[in-house]
Design brief:
By secondary structure, this protein is α/β, with parallel strands linked by helices. The chain is built from 23 helices and 19 strands. The strands form four sheets. Strands 14-13-15-16-12-17-18-19 form an eight-stranded mixed β-sheet, with helices on both faces. Strands 8-7-6-11-10-9 form a six-stranded antiparallel β-sheet.
C-alpha cells in the first residue's frame, strides 16, 4: 500500500474514534501533530498519549480491517514459531509469527491488507498465512525486545516481559517538569533530556526514548529551567550560556543538571543520581581493583566516554577507601553526585560553585587541608593535571576521571595538554606516579535488563614506566596484545562477556578496538 494511502487510512481511524465520541477534536489534533513528528500510526499515538486504552484500539482495528486483532502484551510465542521467520524479514515485512492455525500460521501485522507482504510470507514460510491486526507500538516494542537479545530467541517470548521494558505511557499535555523527573525515576532511566522542538526524552540503557506528547516550545523549556535554578544560578547561566548544578528533593531524589544554549534556545540534561553508594560488586568491577586503593600515594585514573559509568566507579573506589583506611579524604566535584558518610575515614566533599569557585581554586588550597586521599571529579585543564601529579608525587593518593577512549590515549592526552617545553618533564613525572588507568564501557545486556561493564586496564610496571618515559606509549598495545598483569585490552573483557552470554557479539563489536579480529576471536571460542 502506498505511503500516502497508508497515512490516509490511519487518519481515517482517528476520525472514526472521534465520530464515536471516544476522543475529542483537541486530542485528535494533538495526536496527529505527534504522529507527523514520530511516524507512528495514529492509533498507537493515541494509545501512548493515554487518550484510548488497548482494548478500545483493538476493537476499532478489528472492525476497520475486518480481521481478528490481538494484544501482543497478553500472549506467549513459542521460539519454534517465532524463528520460522528471520528477524530481518520480520522487520522488513512488519510481520510477527504468533501461533499455528488449522490452515497454517497466524501472523501479527500492522496492515493485514498488505497482500504483497502476505504473499511473500507464504512463499518464505511455506504455509497459509492468516493475518491478525496488531497495534504498531506493540509490534515495534516486540522488535526492540528481540533485537536486544541478538535477533533470535531460544525461549518463549512473553508479551508481559516486553511490556515491562516499555517506559510509562501517559503524559499530561502540559509541560510538567516535576512529573517528567518522577518518570525518570520510575523508569529507572539514566537521564531526562529536554530540548525545544521535540518531546521530552528519557535515556534508557544508553538509548533515547521519546516520550509521547507535544513538541516543547523554547518558552516552555526556558520556564522549566528557571524553575530549577536559584536566582543566582539563573544570572550565572545568562552570563555564561551554560551551567552545571545539583538538584535535591527529599521525596524524589538527587540529580545533576546541565543547562545550555543551542540554536538560540535552552536545553536541559537531567541525570538521576542514585542515593545508594555503589560497591565494587554493584558496578561489576573486578575484585583486584581494590588492591590499588591501599598504597599511600600514586594516581588512579578512570577513563572512558561520557555516560559509561566513570563517576559511579569513582564513587565505588572512594567508598572502599572509606571502609578500609583511616585517612582524610578531600573531594572536589562538579557537582557532588554521591553523598558519602564518614566511616573509617573522614570524607570532606567540596562542590564547585558552592564550596569553591573552581577546580583550580579548590586544588590550589587542598594541601593545607591535610589530605591523604584527593578525589578530583574530572581533570580538565593544565592546572588540575599539574596539581594532581604533584600531589601523587608528594605522598597522596589521587583518584580522578577523564575523557579518553583508551588507557594509552589517556596518557598521551595528559602529556599533550602541557606546552612542548614541559612535556618530557610531565612524561617522566606521570611514569613515576600512576598506579592504574582503568578504561571502561557499559554494554547493553543480551537479556535487556541493563548494561554490563567491559574494561581495559593498564598497570604501572618497570616495563610500562620505561615505555612512557621514552615516548613509546603507542607501542604498549602491540607489545602487550594478550591478557597479562600489566595490560589487558578491551577486547579481552568484551570476549569474556560474549562467552558468558551476558552480551551479544553484535553489541560487543560496537566497542571493539579491532572489529574484524574481535569477530574472529569470538568465532574461535569453545
Amino acid at each position: 500500500m502506498p505511503h500516502d494511502t497508508l497515512n490516509a487510512t490511519f487518519h481515517r481511524l482517528g476520525e472514526l474514534l472521534l465520530e464515536a465520541g471516544i476522543i475529542s477534536t483537541e486530542q485528535l489534533e494533538i495526536a496527529l501533530k505527534q504522529q507527523s513528528h514520530c511516524g507512528e500510526r495514529i492509533g498507537s499515538v493515541l494509545l501512548r498519549l493515554g487518550y484510548i486504552d488497548t482494548e478500545t484500539l483493538l476493537e476499532f482495528l478489528r472492525k476497520y480491517y475486518g480481521t481478528p486483532s490481538i494484544d501482543l502484551y497478553s500472549i506467549h510465542i513459542a521460539p519454534s514459531v517465532l524463528n520460522s521467520l528471520s528477524f530481518e524479514k520480520m522487520k522488513r515485512l512488519q510481520a510477527l509469527p504468533i501461533i499455528p492455525s488449522t490452515k497454517g500460521l497466524f501472523v501479527g501485522m500492522v496492515d493485514p491488507n498488505d497482500i504483497k507482504a502476505v504473499n511473500e510470507l507464504e512463499f518464505i514460510i511455506g504455509k497459509k498465512i492468516e493475518p491478525v491486526v496488531v497495534p504498531h507500538v506493540q509490534l515495534d516494542a516486540v522488535f526492540r525486545f528481540i533485537e536486544k537479545r541478538g535477533g533470535r530467541l531460544t525461549e518463549t517470548l512473553s508479551g508481559a516481559d516486553v511490556e515491562k521494558e516499555q517506559p510509562d505511557k501517559a503524559l499530561p499535555d502540559a509541560f510538567d517538569l516535576k512529573r517528567l523527573i518522577a518518570l525518570l525515576m520510575k523508569n529507572n532511566a539514566s537521564d531526562l533530556l529536554i530540548s525545544a522542538g521535540v518531546p521530552p526524552c528519557l535515556k534508557l540503557n544508553n538509548e533515547i526514548v521519546r516520550l509521547p506528547g507535544m513538541d516543547l516550545t523554547p518558552a516552555e523549556v526556558e520556564q522549566g529551567a528557571k524553575e530549577l535554578m536559584t536566582d543566582l544560578q539563573w544570572q550565572e547561566f545568562l552570563e555564561k550560556g551554560e551551567l552545571d548544578f545539583g538538584l535535591s528533593n527529599p521525596t524524589v531524589g538527587r540529580f545533576r543538571v546541565n543547562a545550555y544554549r543551542q540554536r538560540g534556545s535552552i536545553s536541559l540534561a537531567i541525570r538521576n543520581i542514585v542515593e545508594k553508594i555503589p560497591t565494587i560488586s554493584d558496578c561489576g568491577l573486578p575484585e583486584w581493583i581494590g588492591e590499588f586503593i591501599m598504597p599511600s600515594q600514586g594516581l588512579i585514573l578512570i577513563t572512558g566516554p561520557t555516560g559509561h559509568g566513570k563517576s559511579t566507579t569513582l564513587a565505588a573506589l572512594l567508598n572502599l577507601i572509606n571502609l578500609k583506611r583511616k585517612c582524610n579524604i578531600i573531594t572536589i566535584e562538579d557537582p557532588i553526585e554521591f553523598l558519602h558518610k564518614h566511616k573509617m575515614s573522614n570524607i570532606n566533599q567540596r562542590e564547585v560553585g558552592r564550596d569553591t569557585p573552581s577546580f583550580h581554586e579548590g586544588l590550589s588550597h587542598i594541601f593545607r587541608q591535610a589530605p591523604d586521599v584527593i578525589m578530583i571529579g574530572e581533570m580538565r585543564d593544565v592546572e588540575s593535571f599539574e596539581i594532581a601529579l604533584r600531589a601523587a608525587e608528594t605522598g597522596h593518593l589521587v583518584v580522578s576521571t577523564m575523557h579518553a577512549n583508551s588507557s594509552t590515549i589517556a596518557i598521551e592526552r595528559i602529556i599533550e595538554i602541557f606546552p612542548p617545553e614541559k612535556q618530557q618533564q610531565m612524561r617522566i613525572q606521570l611514569a613515576e606516579v600512576f598506579l592504574l588507568i582503568f578504561n571502561q564501557r557499559l554494554i547493553a545486556k543480551a537479556d535487556g535488563t541493563g548494561r554490563a561493564l567491559a574494561y581495559e586496564k593498564l598497570v604501572n610496571t618497570p616495563r610500562i614506566r620505561n615505555m612512557i618515559r621514552e615516548s613509546k606509549t603507542h607501542h604498549i598495545r602491540s607489545v602487550f596484545q594478550h591478557l597479562g598483569d600489566e595490560f589487558q585490552p578491551m577486547d579481552v573483557s568484551l570476549n569474556n562477556l560474549v562467552k558468558s552470554g551476558v552480551v551479544t557479539v553484535e553489541e560487543a563489536v560496537k566497542y571493539s578496538e579491532n572489529p574484524a579480529l574481535f569477530k574472529d576471536m569470538t568465532h574461535k571460542r569453545p
